[in-house]
């Protein structure tokens, strides 16, 4: 996970603090399980156990691009033995992937804490169609209704979904972690999350050149997030981080494939201070900062 998130949950979290996370574009659930382990401090929530069960159900599973199924799981803090109430919403549009997620959560006895919903998310409610392809395949997705191999899937705003699940999240409970990774439709999900963002402490979304990012300039999205009280950063490598909010540079609008991390300073002050401190430390290092193996001038 990100250094600032790990630091909070390892060293600064209040005793008994509950945890709610939402993963829009859950894929094979590896990151979402890691979040549940972090949020619950429950050693029985084990990503390797999840991986073994998920991959062992006799279904052809396409490997992840980022290979989350191979990375280490969250290391539980040694100084905190108390478990915390925690729930993760795993929202996945691909029908076969969602079905496989549901089966795996049920087999492990996690379905009350690892809630799987087969739905797509956007700025308006409706219906769309997704390919019934191999599990975990992120490439073949939206297709034309009635096409062989396509299945209708609910299309929801995140606001709509949370109103439907108030019995789980509560109507006003904070959302500690929101992850959006929907192959180019991330800005559309944010546009359908007006009420939701009023409850979010920290979120990450993916920015690239695909799908509807062409219609939503990143500069406008960052401005909208700022109006909602969020401060957004580029997470780098080696502990480096660059603030985007109030520090916009034109080349930030170039279309590539990074994540954007946004924190609400009032709702998550410890994480916000840590992120800003790391940003100032990055600036202080000047041209010595490296991204992969290339020196940034």
How would you sum up this structure in a few lines?
With 297 residues, the chain is of the alpha/beta class.
Description:
The chain is an alpha/beta fold and about 300 residues long. The protein is about 30% helix and about 20% strand. It has ten helices and 13 strands. The chain has helices spanning about 5-10, 30-40, 45-55, 95-105, 160-165, 165-170, 185-190, 195, 220-225, 270-285; strands at about 20-25, 85-90, 115-120, 120, 125-130, 150-155, 175-180, 200-205, 230-235, 240-245, 260-265, 290, 295. The protein has an eight-stranded mixed beta sheet with strand order 3-2-1-7-8-11-9-10, sandwiched between helices. A three-stranded mixed beta sheet has the order 4-6-5. Strands 12-13 form a two-stranded antiparallel sheet. Helix 4 links the parallel strand 2 (about 85-90) and strand 3 (about 115-120). Helix 1 (about 5-10) crosses helix 10.
